[in-house]
Amino acid sequence: MRRDIGPVEDFPEGEATPVEVEGRLLAVFNVSGDVYALQDNCPHKNLPLSVLGDPTVRGDGGGSDDIPTLGRIEHADRTIDCPWHNLEWDLETGESPVLNTHVPTYDVAVVDGRVVVDL
Amino acid sequence: MNSQDPSAFQDGRIITDTVREHTIVDTDFHLELPEDCLLPYVEDAAIRRKIERFGIPDGLDSPTGTIIGYANHDEDSRHHLGEAETADEIHQVMGDFGIDAVTVTPTNHLPVGTTNYPAVSTAVVRAYNDYVREKVLDPGRGIYANFVIPHWNPETAVAEIERVGDVEGFVGGYNYTTQRLWGNQQYDPIFSALTERDLPLVMHIGSLSTGSDLFETEMRTWVESVVSAWTANQVAHVTNLIVTGVFDKFPDLNVVYLEAGNQWIPLVSNQLDDLYQVFSKDIELVPRLRELDQDYLGRMPSEYVYDNVYASTQPIALPRNGPEAEAILTACHADETFVFSTDWPHHATDVTTWPFNQPGLDADTRERILWKNAQEVYRLPESLSA
Predict the structure, then answer these.
(1) Chain B interface test: which of A28, A54, A60 (most B C-beta within 10 Å)
(2) In chain A, N or C: fewer CB atoms in 10 Å?
(3) Residue B255 Cα distances to B9, B165, B243, B348, B353, angstroms
(4) What 3-state DSSP class applies to B90?
(5) Nearest residue of A to residue B1, measured between CA atoms
(6) Count of CB atoms within 10 A of residue B381's CB?
(7) For B63, left (φ over 0), alpha (ψ -120 to 50), or beta?
């Protein structure tokens, strides 16, 4: 089931973008123009991956609305370190070199300037 | 478990309405204070001059070891979620994470251990306590704190407890579990001064090592230090308090252990109960129990754990398998021993979301962990949950 999730401009390079589609929460990563989609959940502590690349995330509360995060995108390896506790995940396979589990991944492509994900 | 629990996220937010609707007390929220903050509070001019020029001397049993840099690949400062030095900054973070009250703890690097210069250590502790009193305490906004106990000299320690222990907002006397065990009778005046004020002794995990070659020279990784050396430290400390009769002499003393794990609770309780019944005669030579004219402990060892001891939750480390997690929580008596903590801003911070998506954690136990146990042991106001 293919779904158009928006123009590629909505997915800035070097960042992760959260997307909700058909009730599923995805973290979409644009790495030097290559797009990857993972389930937006690190199973270590059940926290979202999509805040990666953003130095702060929205707490949406009574404070600064400004929760600093860790993590980073490793462009050369096409891996990420989770923004919460630095656990590594492969963007293509969703696998971790540490765990024998994986984060579900989705086929995703840029078609005529729009990002299309295969659920 | 890869399935996504919808309670973990809500409208793209991490800290959901569900989290915010619950009362949460964070019992291990660290100040990150540079030395400069403390200098104005150092009264002695000579000591202040030395600190200005050479920094605070390292503690001989200071709470961080030498391997942290190499072991923790902390080369690019990616291991801190932020810094808070004042009540306003703390309150902002509380709002971000849906925390209703904090009991602030010092940065782990505050050298309150035994140094070659006890006068300097004492001056630093007094400066820290005064800084917290002036810049941090704000009970009206749920900001409470622990004051540091200068334990290296019991007379000095008692004087400090008398000086700051009655200040509104200070809710516990703080120190670290290092190589010095607190079952030694020299600490009795400290226990007396705390219990007279209904204040718990709050012990953060301390030295990475236990002082043995096994831990000092052989370990190369952070994880083995935390899992083995810290746990060994913790088990030694809590067991020592029990078998030396601290809780027999001070039945109202509560001790809160921070960042020391918590699954040692069934280990200590069950193994100590069992072996105590085999070797109970050991107890009759314990100095404090001889002073009390007791041949045996007044209760089974596990009863002291469940009634007098608390353990903070971070890092929670529960399995995602519900029945397994529930069994661990039950064995730990989590409903009466666990107090919630984040360890903010350190790299293993537990975000406030986990109690809402942890399989095996029932609603009543969650409330006890999130705030009720902390309210009891720190004597926080009834209005906390309003």
Answers:
(1) A60
(2) N
(3) 35, 16, 15, 23, 26
(4) helix
(5) A43
(6) 12
(7) alpha
Token digits of residue B5: 């629990």
**Residue tagged 């979409």 (tokens):** A28
Across the A/B interface, how many CB contacts are shorter than 8 Å?
94
- State the Cα–Cα distance between residues B294 and B253, nearest whole angstrom: 19
Tokens (6 digits) for B37: 């903050």
Q: Which amino acid makes up residue A77?
A: D
Query: Quick one: which of B365, B222, B223, B235 has its CA closest to B309?
Result: B235
Helices (H) and strands (E) in chain B, counts: 19, 8
DSSP B56: S
Tokens, residue A113 = 């300037």
What's the DSSP call for residue B57?
A: P
Six-digit token string for B112: 């309150």
A→B contacts (Cβ < 8 Å), by residue, are 18, 20, 25, 39-41, 43, 45-48, 51, 57-72, 84-86, 101-104
Q: What is the pTM of this model?
A: 0.89
ipTM, interface predicted TM-score of the complex: 0.70
Task: Kindly state the helix (H) or strand (E) to which residue A5 belongs, with its residue range.
Answer: strand A2-7
The amino acid at residue B247 is F
- Please give chain B's pLDDT, 386 residues, in tens: 233 443 345 555 678 888 999 999 999 999 988 888 999 999 999 999 998 998 887 664 444 444 555 555 555 544 577 788 999 999 988 998 999 999 999 975 565 556 678 888 899 999 999 999 999 999 999 999 999 999 889 999 999 999 999 999 999 999 988 778 999 999 999 999 999 999 999 999 876 555 566 666 677 777 887 888 888 889 999 999 999 999 999 999 999 999 999 999 999 999 999 999 999 998 989 999 999 999 999 999 999 999 999 999 999 999 989 999 999 999 999 999 999 999 998 878 999 999 999 999 999 999 999 999 999 999 999 888 76
Rounded to whole angstroms, how far apart are CA atoms A47 and A88? 14
